[in-house]
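Lab notes, practical 5.
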Amino acid sequence: MKLLEGKNALITGASKGIGRAIALKYAEQGANVAFTYLSSVEKGEALVKELEAFGVKAKGFRSDASDFSAAEELINGVVSEFGSLNILVNNAGITQDTLLMRMSEEQWDKVINVNLKSCFNTVKAATRTLMKQKAGSIINISSVVGVRGNAGQANYSASKAGIIGFTKSVALELGSRGIRSNAVAPGFIETEMTEVLDEKTVQGWRDSIPMKRGGKPEEVADCCVFLGSDQSTYISGQVINVCGAMLT
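Output from the prediction step:
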């Protein structure tokens, strides 16, 4: 029996990196997958074919999760297309790193809106459906820097810390309706985003991690499979660090 057999999932920001890995793991475990992308239509179309190869239903939505009305339209479209929504994974995110003294208001606002406000938008839009079903799993992708902070990432760290507070509040508000809300906080995960860094910087990160390596997107995805499945039905309001003991 596949862990997510028959469940319908929505994953935001799934055209690459961690989001893409989650979408593929979900399909592998039997879930029908809706996902969003913003810029790369070709990657979105290619991902649909990869997901369908697992024998599940898949559909990509070109949508900006930071836009409130677009998020409402997205949720309505997913429910209309798939009939229900069982798992919502908020993964959409960006970085615009710089020291605070150099950070513009635009850089602050953009990161907060894409990373944090998007979670509010999609959860707000999905709440009515999930409450009617009296069941559902919300998984918000945070970061270890949302727990401990990071120099040069005040905007990103604030957005990811906000996700943790939001996640816990949603768990308290919706728990009585059978809806779970958890956050996953990845550490240094080697994706397309880290490929632009020089090897010395990457190796420095690896050396600072007790497990002496970066994480794989699939390892974050495995955690999300667990939180979306019926194996975690009494887990809510938690933050799970996927970080190789970077945080203890």
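Observations recorded by the TA: The chain has one domain: 8-241. The longest strand covers residues 179-186.
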